[in-house]
Amino acid sequence: MVAFGACAPQQIFVEAFAEFDVQVSIDEARGPMGMGKWDHIRTLCNQPEVAERYRTVFGRTPTDDDVTAIYERFMPLQIEKIAEHSALIPGALDTIAHLRQQGIKIGSCSGYPKQVMDKVVELAATNGYL
Question: CA 21 to CA 6: how far, in whole Å?
Answer without folding.
Answer: 23
